[in-house]
Each structure stands twice: as C-alpha cells, then as structure tokens.
Amino acid sequence: MAAEQGEGVKVPRMKLGSQGLEVSAQGLGCMGMSAFYGPPKPDGDMITLIHHAVDSGVTFLDTSDIYGPHTNEILVGKALKGGVRERVELATKFGISFADGKRDICGDPAYVRAACEASLKRLDVDCIDLYYQHRVDTRLPIEITMGELKKLVEEGKIKYIGLSEASASTIRRAHAVHPISAVQLEWSLWSRDVEEDVIPTCRELGIGIVAYSPLGRGFLSSGPKMLEDFTNGDFRKYLPRFQAENLEHNIKLYERIVEIAETKGCTPSQLALAWVHHQGNDVCPIPGTTKIENLNQNIGALSVKLTPEDMAELEKIGSADAVKGDRYSPDMRTWKDSDTPPLSTWKAV
Ligand code: ATR
pTM value? Predict the structure, then answer.
C-alpha cells in the first residue's frame, strides 16, 4: 500500500543521451494542467502539484509553447520561482503554431529563434535545458532547422536538443548536424509501432528516449470510465481509439491490465508505467497528471518489479491486434510522415 502511494520510493536519476543531460527517471507531463484535457486547472493547485513533484524527486518537467497555447509555459514559469528553477530539468518545445487560427508546423530558422526567445520570456528563465522540435516541418530539410538549434546551443539559450515524433531517417540526419539528446515519442502498452525502427535508431545513436502518454492518455489507468469525464474541451473525444467502434475492442486490453495489476499488487497505472520503466535505463516516461494522489501513485510504479514472464504476458496483451484505431486522426502529423527533403535540393528563399 505504501508503494502504491509512492511512499518511500526514491526516484532514481538517469542520463538522457550522451551529451551530459541527467534527469529524474520519471518526468511530469504538464500539458493537461492547461490544455487539451478539458478546462485549465487552477494555477495555484498546479503550482502546488509541480512543487510536490520536485520535492518528491520528479524534477524533469515537460511543457510546450502550444499547450494553451502559451499558458502552460507561463504556469510552469510561475512554479519555477523561489529557487525551484535550479532544481529541475526544464523541457519545452516549438514548431506547432495556430497562426490566423490555422494549425501550422514550422521549422524555419527565423521561426525557431523567435519561438525560443518567446518561450524563454514566458518561462522567465535564461536557458531551456532540453528544447524539442515538437513536430517536424517537412517543407524544409531537417538540417536547416537543426542549424538554428545548434546556434541556440552555442549562444547558451538552450542546453540540449530534442526531437518529437521524428522518423528514424530524420533523427539520423538531425544527429549528424548536432547531437540529439532525446527523442520524445508516444510509447506505451498500446502504442508500440516505434519499437520497429525509431527506438533501435535512438539506441544505435545513444539518444535518450522520452515516452509520452505512457498511460494511453489515461485509458490504461481508468479504462472506459475515463470517457465519462470528458468535457467539451477534451481533444481525446476525437481520437480514433476512443470512438465507439474501436472502444468496445480496446476495453478488453484494459480489462487484462486490471487483472494482471491485481496479481502484481499494484494499480493499472503502475503496471502500465512499470512496463515502460522496464524497457531500459535509457527510457524516461513522462506521465501527465493534475492530481497529487495520482503523481504519488505514479512514483510508486518505480517499485513494481516485472519478471521476464510478466513482460512477455504484457507484450502479448499489448500486441498490434489488441488495439483498434490509430493514435491520432489523419490530419495530425506523426513520425510516420516526418521525412524531410534532401539538403541538396534546398534553395533558401
Ligand atoms: P499525456 O502524456 O498525454 O498526459 P498520459 O500520461 O498517458 O497522457 O495520461 C494522462 C492521463 O492519465 C490524465 O488524464 C491523468 O488524469 P489526472 O490529471 O486526473 O491524473 C491520468 N492519470 C495520470 N496518472 C494517473 C493515475 N495514477 N491514476 C489514474 N489516472 C491517472
């Protein structure tokens, strides 16, 4: 029970990539505090939650300029006051914008620089520890975007570079311009397509792996009950996996997780997180939560030990046929469509 509450569980530290970045072995996804998962939560409560996370050893904070947009970075910036900044590893992202009400993905050098400067201002910090390209701009060679990120490192505005939802080939090309410290991707018991190509490429290049939505956006924690709480502002309503025609099938996966969690004496969330933690010491899951009790429970996942037999059983229940529906609707860019034109064809305008 104590472990279930995360009590007495020390959050280990880990290296992300080969450039010196060290983070807590579990991070905190801050998105849901301000955006996409229903109405924004009260600032005061979220600042208390972030402080509790940091005091508990979860010091790797994940945000993006598009969460809100902008309000999540402002919130995180407020939480960093009073000496907290020095105790955390701060990750944010650029690349998705809603200019003129239209979603756009931009990796143009001038845009990258302006986005970074705006994030520094909102977060009210001198330097971002890990700066990710949130989605790859496929209109220009990745080398062009990376060239500007490299300059930002040289100027001390960012310490380490990350990519999110990038293909193996894009990761490889980017890494040749400047070492990439972390690749962020959706990796969980029900999102495993990255295992074929993207994960092996990160490992070959010594790049750290940050697993977002490790709880299947809450479905692996609470199953269909989660859907009852969806409000109008909750974008999960529109994701293929939560549509009625797929849900009926996907519920079976949740039910198996509940059964196995019971035999392991942990909660479904802890089992799902433990599965990610057991993928290797180069993998850092960043579950999102807005509640202290859930954060404590997630820390408790670090004490759940899975045997090779448990892993094999989980791998079976989390196979591709166990899940119906894509991760995103077709208009949302993922690593599958993140290859960029060859540098040789590029003519700057
Ligand atoms: P994302 O990376 O997109 O935030 P996730 O980490 O897979 O996705 O899941 C986040 C969801 O899981 C949130 O809806 C969160 O709800 P709360 O804000 O209410 O916590 C839910 N969640 C996180 N930890 C949980 C836990 N231990 N038990 C139940 N639900 C949890």
Answer: 0.95
